Amino acid sequence: xxxxxxxxxxxxxxxxxxxxxxxxxxxxxxxxxxxxxxxxxxxxxxxxxxxxxxxxxxxxxxxxxxxxxxxxxxxxxxxxxxxxxxxxxxxxxxxxxxxxxxxxxxxxxxxxxxxxxxxxxxxxxxxxxxxxxxxxxxxxxxxxxxxxxxxxxxxxxxxxxxxxxxxxxxxxxxxxxxxxxxxxxxxxxxxxxxxxxxxxxxxxxxxxxxxxxxxxxxxxxxxxxxxxxxxxxxxxxxxxxxxxxxxxxxxxxxxxxxxxxxxxxxxxxxxxxxxxxxxxxxxxxxxxxxxxxxxxxxxxxxxxxxxxxxxxxxxxxxxxxxxxxxxxxxxxxxxxxxxxxxxxxxxxxxxxxxxxxxxxxxxxxxxxxxxxxxxxxxxxxxxxxxxxxxxxxxxxxxxxxxxxxxxxxxxxxxxxxxxxxxxxxxxxxxxxxxxxxxx
Length: 439
Ligand code: UGA
Known about the structure:
By secondary structure, this protein is of the alpha/beta class. The chain has helices at 10-21, 33-40, 51-60, 70-76, 97-109, 126-137, 158-163, 175-185, 197-228, 232-240, 261-274, 280-292, 295-304, 330-340, 353-359, 369-373, 393-399, 414-419, 433-438; strands at residues 2-6, 25-29, 64-67, 79-82, 114-118, 144-148, 168-172, 192-195, 311-315, 344-348, 364-365, 378-381, 404-407, 423-425. An eight-stranded mixed sheet has the order 3-2-1-4-5-6-7-8, with helices on both faces. Strands 11-10-9-12-13-14 form a six-stranded parallel sheet.
């Protein structure tokens, strides 16, 4: 099938490249000429494992094209995916202006039937609004369908998630739209859920909100663990082994970040309030996360009395491993707070340092994790990159001024760290970490 992708950011590029890999003919459009020029030379503007070779191979086979011309993209096929950004406004509301621009251009351009699919994360009832937007600029009485096909791609795992989805949600309002989308996804042989458009839109928001809720839940439990000597890792396992609950997304830590959970939660809370619903549960999820994000700072202040003149090492900058994405990264807000308190910072990340330099130029960017720890009063592990498990920790300890290790992702073996002489602090597993880890 022929597919047009409008908006070649994270979602658009992964979706376009994967559809091409499934054998479809894809045109990815973006209004950023530098991005398209970059893609046309076989390079990828974001770090996502496996994406560059996929794009390169499919572009070489002629199944994946790039363009800056929206009209060309609209004319290219009868199946248009809208993947433009939907950033948050100050009040948490979703900014739909990029979708509005695309809708107007579609209305002005189309000359025959089109199926227009929302892939960007949008509030429920966006499709209704988009339909009106398209109709207002439509010349004549052309037929078109709208559909919602939300994405559930995790950064760092996006290709796998696209190719092996738990489910594909298709929100449609006509048989024609439904059968086209079923055919499109046929090669994946994945469970399909066909719904009305509003339900599909809501499934996306509700899924992200539920996952964020699991994280905040276990983080709240972690606080109780710390005060009682329980180990949150064991509690999470014991709770998660109940098939009704599941072990995923129960890793306690310094909170969730990224471009999705914080923004989507705000949007969901805002949408609910517009509908006169006070979604208190989600407000608490957000509150717990906000507090969690400052946990390393609170703990370090207690241990070091003051952070002024102290040197702090940061391991990991991206909001999660296997991406260079710094949006909503806990490491960045922690560094900014440390600098405000008068500390100096030495940071290391395997892939996100170039991005970080443009946002926080005033810290020392280390050449490796050892260099980041050298002379430090404490090291905070903010992102669980695998490399941080494979270090020679004796060398790390010897190089530090005071061997405080704050493991913000409960990634390291506490018993081993304590045996090596570190003052080890995890989330929800101290101060009895030694005893608990030994069991
Ligand atoms: C999330 C969802 O997982 C995807 O299904 C969804 O498609 C995507 O948002 C989106 O809306 O586009 P993503 O933000 O890439 O994906 O990353 P996650 O793996 O969900 O992690 C989000 C944050 O939660 C990270 O900061 C991570 O460190 C944190 N997290 C995750 C925890 O603190 N504990 C956990 O147990 C799991």
